[in-house]
Amino acid sequence: MTAPAGNSGLQSLDFRGVELADCPQRRQLDEVRETFAALSEDSLLYPFRVRRGFPSPGTPLRGWYGEGLFNNLGQFFTLYARIYAATGDERFAAKARRLLDGWAETIDESGYFFDATGAGAKEYSYDKLVCGLLDIHEYVSHDDALAILRRISEWMRRYGDRGRRYAWNGLGPLEWYTLPEYLLRAYTVTGDPLYRELADAYFYDDFYAALLERDVDALMRRADEVHRFYQAHSHLNALNSAAARYEVTGERKFLDAAVAGYDFMRATQTYATGMFGPLESFAKPWQLAEVVHSEVGHAEVSCPSWAMMRLVRHLVELTGAARYGDWMELNLYNGVGAAPPTRADGRATQYFADYGLDGARKTWGLEWSCCSATNPINMAEYVNQIYYAGPEGLCVCLYLPSRVRRRIGDAELRLTQRTEFPVSETVEFDVALDRPVRAALSFRIPGWLTAPAVLTVNGAPARTRPRDGWAALDREWRDGDRVTLTLPMGVDVLPVIPGYDGPVAVRHGPVVLVEPRPEGTRRLSLDDVAAVAGSLTRTSDTTLEFTGTAADGRTVRLLPYFAVEPDVPYAMHFDDDGGRVPHGDVDYNDAADWEMVDIQVFVLTRRRTYAASETPGAFFRTEFDGTGVLWAGYRSPLAGFADVFIDGRFVERVTQLAGSELPAFLWRATGLAPGRHELKVVVVGAAPEGSRGVQVNVKHVRGVA
Question: pLDDT band at residue 171, thresholds of 50, 70 and 90?
Fold first, then answer.
């Protein structure tokens, strides 16, 4: 095993000695554990056995898993190994061993290891298998896992696609840039240079260089230049590859890239929930706000949570800074922690989460997609994110009922965390020791506090030493000591984009609050939300439910997003119309040239509506007030060129081209003189290279100041 080159001294406990006690997150984990304990290994192995012509008992899984395009068997290795590590449930160790043994029998003599002849996303499937085999080796101690990993890696060295296409969205080398993280982990575990060679072959240097410029517009243009978009959660995974590179080599630029990527995500890409990826893509400036008005697919949940959890762990370990734990905390209550566990039919909630203005719902996603497996992986990972060990003692990163056992010097520490947080502001820690010991117990101080945190030891105020966002209690500890931590919480009204006249959300501490409200009932305006926040009263000591008074005197009820059941309507964001002109109200040169599209798009839960034209010379135009303008629409593989004019003057030629019809499109112009202006967009009738059409579309237009 090679020694890591870069580390702050903090280390995740890697499940060792940690037990998650009764709490909503533990109940999530227990529910999903029973679901996946009942899943037959024969069903998972079915397509692999069919490919080889072997007897294939069991019922094949439906959905993506069974279609041969996005097989994610490796994630099942990971979920079984990690649920075993998190709970000690021997059923999962046994299932991991049987599943691995059964799959190994289907690998060809050549090393070909996929579920179908001509599998379409080899890098994608291989990436999951590398992680899964390492997890089975480390947590289940399967003797053959590393040998099998080397065998399939030799095949990938011969036949993998090393084209390193920037922001690639298609099949073929799908998500190739995620590979180095696990390959470098394999190199660290084995010391085998094969894995270092493969990691180097898939490294995403251009993306890291773009991140280090810390220029959002330049970063987004880089993908536009190749007519693609940044698939959001897989590009977050690419940050994990940068962090892993720093861990192995100690080259500072890779840590800097991971930190720059984290800062980019938190500053420009995340909602109040902490989640991100509207319509699977990174958002351009202003786009996070605009899609709240036009879409239902505001954030992926399960797969992005798994990427986020790993990045948080990497950065806490590599920098020693507590601030990264704040993102994980938001996920705990508003991301995967607000999502019911995967059902027995393989459906996980919320391929996309709906953060809309009214009639939003938590909906059940696709059968046996990638989310079906990452959902339980995330729930096991809760256990891995609570505590970090350091040279001075123990750091508490998440406030969850739990127990941890850890040797510190010559003493054995048993720390019990008791809390109803976030329903309560108080967290208590009971210290049990077999002998006194000098050590530091450190506690993450969240960024959302409304007043300083208060720490007491045995009822007396305690002096703490601040360090990288932790409050450290450095003292001699004795058996029976008790620490009490109070984290003052209040209500924040958070704009989607700070300084932008647009939608806002309401958060109490780390918990996003929503208004239970069916579609078609009166929305809260920005004035209403300000009035509600100023009058908010908590209605129960045992739940986070509140009432407040709107500007018009209505009583408004707010409750935690995590408390909303699937298919119950709610509103998470609140806004005025803000000068948006919907596509039905803009002026068209000739209605016959424009189709009013009403279409169902794959993975979305509502139909999409917009106007589109392929007629050369056709145009739409509208007047707007402000110093800038936004044109919202959709990316498309059928997109052609459009010429954009403001006040009769040509501005530029643009295209909405991308390899998928899913992501949103946003064009903007700023720096105009205050006042009234006209936007005109003309269909050129010519196609950029790689397009299958000449279409131009519009969802809405908005003037901005």
Answer: confident
Q: Which two tokens stand for residue 185?
A: 């982990």
Contact 323, 346 (CB under 8 A): no
Same domain membership, residue 663 and residue 614: yes
89 pLDDT tier (thresholds 50, 70, 90): very high
pLDDT at 500 over 90: no
Mean pLDDT lowest among 175-179, 357-361, 680-684, 696-700 = 357-361
Q: Are residues 191 and 142 in the same domain?
A: yes
pLDDT of residue 345: 92
Half-sphere exposure of 540 (CA within 13 A, CB side): 10
Confidence of residue 351 (pLDDT cuts 50, 70, 90): confident
Q: CB-hemisphere CA count at 13 Å for 16?
A: 10
In whole angstroms, what is the distance from residue 339 CA to residue 72 CA? 21
Q: Which of 95, 74, 246 is nearest to 156 (CA)?
A: 74
Please give the tally of structural domains in the chain.
4
CATH code, 93: 1.50.10.20
What's the mean pLDDT when you consider all of the chain?
Answer: 95
Question: Is 60 exceeded by the pLDDT of residue 226?
Answer: yes
User: Does 607 lie in the same domain as 584?
Assistant: yes
pLDDT tens, residue by residue, 655-685: 999 999 999 999 999 999 999 999 999 999 9
Contact 276, 332 (CB under 8 A): no
Tokens describing residue 578: 């803000």
Instruction: Judge whether 127 lies within some domain.
Output: yes
The boundaries of the domain holding residue 84 are 39-202
Q: What is the per-residue DSSP string for 338-382? A: GSPPPPTTSPPB-SSB---SSSB---B--TT-HHHHHHHHHHHHH
Inter-residue contact 342 to 376 (CB < 8 Å):
yes
**651/679 Cα distance (integer angstroms):** 10
Beta bridge partners of 142: none
Asked if residues 579 and 628 have their Cβ atoms less than 8 Å apart, the reply is no
Number of other residues whose CB lies within 10 A of the CB of residue 138: 18
Token reading at 190: 């084995």
Q: Which two tokens stand for residue 266?
A: 């938190």
Q: 499 pLDDT exceeds 90?
A: no
**Do residues 196 and 53 share a domain?**
yes
Buried-exposed string 271-293: b where 16+ CB fall within 10 A, e elsewhere: bbbbbbbbbbbbbbbbbbbbbbb
Phi then psi for 243, rounded to 5 degrees? -60, -40
Residues 532, 571 contacting (CB under 8 angstroms):
no
Q: Where do we find the tokens 């798994």?
A: 306
Reply yes or no on whether the pLDDT at 14 is more than 80.
Answer: yes
Q: Tell me the Cα Rg of the chain.
A: 26
Strand order in the sheet with 437-444: 11-12, 387-390, 393-396, 437-444, 470-477, 465-467
Could you tell me which of 341, 336, 345 has the C-alpha nearest to residue 368? 345
In a domain, 13, yes or no: no
Task: Flag whether 246 is in a domain.
Answer: no
Tell me the CA distances in angstroms from 537 to 460, 486, 488, 558, 563, one per residue in order.
31, 20, 16, 10, 18
Residue 2 pLDDT > 60: no
Domain membership of residue 372 (yes or no) is no
Query: What is residue 559's three-state secondary structure?
Result: strand
CATH classification at residue 610: 2.60.120.260
Q: Look up residue 226 and give its DSSP letter.
A: T
> Which residues share a beta bridge with 610?
597
Percent of the chain at pLDDT > 70 equals: 99
111, 136: one domain: yes
